[in-house]
Specification:
Structural class: alpha+beta
Strand content: 25-35%
Shape: elongated
Number of strands: 5
Distance between the termini: 68 Å
Order of helices and strands: EHHEHHEEE
Largest sheet: 3 strands, antiparallel
Strand order of the largest sheet: 2-4-3
């Protein structure tokens, strides 16, 4: 009898075309701090080609799943990536599939006195 696991159906995801963040001295943003990490940048580069699970990303960037998961959480909080699907491993474990939330990120500098 064939197993229903792993269950990894094709994923289709269209990120938004552009997202803008505003850097303002009165309202700090965490996005630039999140992006300052080399690991986060590698993860974003990996997700550019296609959505992936944390373990696939970890293998691609040659890092531990634990370290990648930390950065995935931060990237999700900054709304730079988004969970789009749930797959199941051969052992029946849920695996979240992540994708870029946007194709372009525009940084704008704003002074509330303007």
């Amino acid at each position: 009898m064939a197993s229903a696991l792993p269950h990894q159906p094709p994923v289709t995801h269209a990120p938004s075309e552009q997202t803008s963040i505003v850097v303002d001295r009165d309202e700090p943003t965490d996005v630039l701090q999140v992006l300052s990490s080399e690991s986060a940048q590698e993860i974003l580069g990996t997700l550019k080609s296609e959505p992936r699970t944390a373990s696939e990303i970890a293998k691609s960037v040659n890092q531990s799943v634990q370290n990648v998961s930390y950065h995935l959480d931060r990237l999700c909080e900054a709304e730079l990536i988004t969970p789009i699907e749930t797959w199941y491993s051969e052992k029946g474990r849920e695996m979240t599939v992540y994708a870029l939330a946007t194709e372009q990120l525009v940084v704008q500098f704003h002074d509330s006195d303007d």
